[in-house]
Amino acid sequence: MSYTLDEIIRIPGMLENLKNVKFNFLKDTNYLFVGCGSSYNLGFITKTLLNLNGYKADVVTSGHVMLFNKVPKSDIAILITRTGETTETVKAAQIIKNAGIKTIGITCTKNSTISKICDDSIILDFAEEKSVVMTGSFVLILAMFVNGIKYHDFSEESQKVLDLSDKIINTINLGKYEHFVFLGYDENLGVSKEGALKLQEMALQYVEYHEPLEYRHGPISRLTEKTLVVINSKDTAEEKKLIKDIKKLGATTLEISFEGDISVPNLNGFEVPLRLIPIQYLGYKKAIQMGYNPDTPKNLSKSVKLE
Ligand code: F1P
């Protein structure tokens, strides 16, 4: 079996291991999340959820810190890098540390460079992945952060979402679609950005992501019957109206929400780790339908190393 698929299917079992991982956010601390690619998206989702719950947090790409040598004001920088070796993130860690800010490295790889630089590290080596694209580890690290605000045991729910994703996505004629739009507000805008990245990385698709109501302000012009719109909704009336309008224009929608096609519990945003499962599975299934091997995505390496 493809190890990318295996690393999605094993998410429920891995979430069990989080019970032994302690990580708590403090209200009076300024957090800065730093990362590249999926790891940046993970930081974006987490900082958004923290801000919505009264915490102080910001996010920046590792490349921006490395390029401009500028560090947003913060007390603790949390550097996310699954491999622990991405050049921009390793360099950003050194710059931030030199600025006198406490650094915490979050990685899935033992003895990686990031943990040698950062003041502290959390190494989720049980979530280490062979896949080039980040899947299960994304859900694990995000669940750890969510638990840092309010504890949830996601393992049982994640199995239900995985089974439902398989059932529903297998009813979609994926060969019909060559344009994927992801929509969502707040933390779900981050989920949408990550969903778009998965469809790019694994299935080489044309993708975009927006806030739902922004979609009508221009991007909807490119909608055709070959468009699949994935909306991580909050079940608002306006989002339901938008889904109706999108269908009237001939496209297909897939709603991920408590009342949606793929149901996730409504935990006031804390359900967000579960929302990644359907979009990772969709990326994998579209890649297979295209005849691609998601284990060896085009032009990509597991960790981007600059000279
Ligand atoms: C960061 C990253 C991944 C992306 C690809 C290239 O890796 O951008 O998010 O999917 O694998 O590297 P890391 O710093 O989290 O190891």
UniProtKB/TrEMBL annotation:
The protein's enzyme class: transferase
Assigned keywords, A-Z: Aminotransferase, Repeat, Transferase
Domain spans labelled SIS: 14-155, 168-297
Single Gene Ontology MF annotation: glutamine-fructose-6-phosphate transaminase (isomerizing) activity
InterPro entries, sorted: GlmS/AgaS_SIS, GlmS/FrlB_SIS, SIS_dom, SIS_dom_sf
Gene3D superfamilies (UniProt xref): Glucose-6-phosphate isomerase like protein, domain 1 (3.40.50.10490)
PROSITE patterns: SIS
BP GO annotations: carbohydrate derivative metabolic process
Protein name: Glucosamine-fructose-6-phosphateaminotransferase
